[in-house]
Amino acid sequence: YGVDAVFTAIGVVPEVELARQLGVELGGTGAIRTDAMLRTSLEDVYAAGDAAEALNLVTGKPDWFPLAPVANKMGYVAGSNLAGLAEEFPGAVGTAVTKVFSLEVGRTGLTERRAVEEGFKPVSVVVEGRSRAGYYPGSTSMTVKLIADSETGRLLGAQIVGGEGVLARINAAAVLISKGATVREAFFSDLGYAPPFAPVWDPLVTAARVLWGKLRT
To answer: 152 with 182: CB under 8 angstroms?
Structure first.
């Protein structure tokens, strides 16, 4: 078949060979098990970054987040503790964004499948919106998927695809999910508005409104 491009996604695994040699305990993800201060099972040995586990703020369980912002903050915490300044790493929700040709793609929190695996009863919506006010030049389409727990209304995850403006929305969703916000709280979030940057009904808020309605029926 004729194609324009072929992509292969093989995934990544934590590099923990040194930890194995030292006898450091590994977690269920295959990365190094740590506590909130990023201490390992060996005294005075700390682990941070792509080789170490961290708390998933949605599931409340150890998880693995091979992402640069998480790794840098974990490094800050480990370094602080090594310097005698007591600090804890609160956890993460796995926020990531990338660009595929002209499309921006972002995700945070749990996918719907992962939510089921973790014992939640998820409900979700997919909403189409615009990156800017519809009448403003340069506005592009945006698709937002929001996932919530049907029993508590707690926001569990979000995925967004669009021509522009994905980063701002996925970051807002990440903060909401990190703080355990409900869909109702997401709907009433006081987000900024101006025609060059967003429609008056932001796609993230619109998705929350639709999902909130679904939860109430």
So the answer is: yes
